[in-house]
Amino acid sequence: MDAEFYIDGVLKKKRAIIAKSITLIESALPAHQQLAQNILDGLLPYAGNAVRIGISGVPGVGKSTFIESFGMMLIEKGHRVAVLAVDPSSSRSGGSIMGDKTRMERLALQPNAFIRPSPTSGTLGGVAKKTRESMIICEAAGHDVILVETVGVGQSETAVASMVDFFLVLMLAGAGDELQGIKKGILELSDAIVINKADGNNIERAKEARAEYESALNLMESKSSVWSVPVLTCSALTMDGLEDVWKAISEYRQKLTEAGELDEKRRLQAIDWMWSLVENGLKDRFFENQKVKSQLPAIIGAVEKGQTSPTAAASELLSLHGK
Amino acid sequence: MKKMPDAGGGHVVKSADVAGEASQLELIKRKVNQFVAQNGRRPRVLVSHIGPSGQRRTLNQVAAIFARRGFDVDIGSICQSPQQVAVMAIENDVHMVCLLCDPERQSRMGSDLFDLLRANGSDDTLVVFFGDMDTGGNLRQTPGGRYSPVGFRPASADAAIDTILDKLT
After folding, report:
1. FRET label pair with B12: which of A234, A313, B46, B49, CA 20 to 30 Å apart?
2. Contact B75/A99, CB-based, under 8 Å?
3. What ipTM was assigned to the predicted interfaces of this complex?
4. Domain-embedded: residue A224
């Protein structure tokens, strides 16, 4: 199969071809990567028109349920929704269990939805290396809303925030104590904070949490001259408040587009993307270098035994690579 | 996915290379690594249940068996239709589907699922069944297509997965 076959299939919205294109993008084989690059080059002119939304939050905050309900609402509005979910791989055996889709059962069956969980396969930061590229495939296949779900731990938020238009952070009520533990970082990244599970007995607590987050956000400098980060409440279970979340995202898009900030953001993201590819490429080349490969075990051993300092070892390895 | 002979090296791991039952797990992990070198990703399996009544717990158990041996596992749900399983298998582009299903339904569900996969251009997907019968890990090829009853309980999982891996590579 050549690139044309895949490009044609993706543009014709063929589910199996979209899926196989993403597989090629994620593949570690050089032959697959070359083919994937040709597919991407062919599809790039058709991409870029979707609303890209990153969704993060601690485990148990209800990310999957939120995406199921939010996605269903968007489908009913006539949108085509793609969900790219990133699941952590186990470091021991390398395998991973991806169970997110089971909690998106209604959405999974919609003809206008495409859900693809991806293993992180050892990428630092918790987000699959190739999520950006997968996003382009989905956009070229006519999906106009892309939801990127990420586990809300470590550096994954930063990685996702750097590839989406809108970064939404889900929180839980009763956050008085929690607020202390939440890194300032994630609040700084967010374009909206949404307090989920605002239903039943929890409504009052959600309102209190909302006030607390609003005051916490007041301490922070705004990223945009035209957007101040709202704190919303919703219940993915009862669908209450989801409409307001979509309204906020639409308003954000409109305001930033008018101010030229969205284009600017995407331009900067393109540069970010380039640098992250350079970084990955350098790392790969370093580990593929024959001299590095042959010396690495001995040098690691020397550092372990305290015979060489980490600084000296690092500079030796880098000079081996440079030769 | 076609084999990439230039990337995987020439060596093929045979059961005879590794002696003893204790190392069967290691053998499987080596085969998985070989698979990764040839295919550019881990073997990916969708574990799902078809039919009116089933247990979530068993699904999770089977998923854990595969994950521990280095597979990427998508957990489906219980009480699915062949249509639901097919959509998920296609979108996630899995190499194989491991179905939990009543023995008397297996043949019909298997061929329904296989037809759906084939209609969507995913006829290279292997379909196997998780069941109570003990076939000692023998994968039987049905004449119509690539779906096979393979009886594996957690106790005989290694033998079954070993056979499956040979089938996939």
Report:
1. B46
2. yes
3. 0.81
4. yes
